[in-house]
Amino acid sequence: MKTFDAAIAGGGLIGASIALELARAGLRVGLFDRQEPGKEASWASAGILSPAPESPAMIVLVPLGKASMALYPDFVSLAEELSGQNAGYRTKGTLEVLTSLNAREELSTIIALHHGLGLRAEPLSAADAQELEPSLREDIEAAVLRPAEASVDNRLLTQAVLASARKSGVEIFAGVAADSIWREGATCVGLIAGGDKISAKHTVIAAGCFSAQIQGVESYAPVRPAKGQMISLVCSDVKIERVLWGDEIYVVPRNDGRVLAGATVEYAGFDKTLTAGGQKKLLSGAINLVPSFEHARVEETWAGLRPDSPDHLPILGPADLQGLVIATGHFRSGVLLTPITAKLVREWITLGSTSVDWERFSPLRFAQVEKKNQAVAN
Question: What domains can be seen in the chain, in order of their start residue?
Answer without folding.
Answer: 2-83+154-222+310-377 (3.50.50.60), 94-149+225-308 (3.30.9.10)
